[in-house]
Amino acid sequence: MNKRRADLLLIVITIIWGTTFTIVHSAVDELTPMVLVALRFGAAALVLLPFAGDMRGLGRRGIIIAVGLGAILFSGFALQTFGLERTTPGRAGFITGLNVVIVPILGRLVGQRAAPRVLAGIALALVGLSILSWGCQIPALGCAPEAIAAAGWSIGDTLVLLCAVAFALHIVVVGRWAPGLSVRPLNTLQLLTVALLATGMSLLDPSQLRFRLSVETVIAVLFLGIVATALVFGMQLVAQRAASPTRTALIFALEPVFAAFFAWLWIGEPLTSAVWLGGGVMLTGILFAELQGWPRWSVVGGQ
Question: How many domains does the chain have?
Answer without folding.
Answer: 1
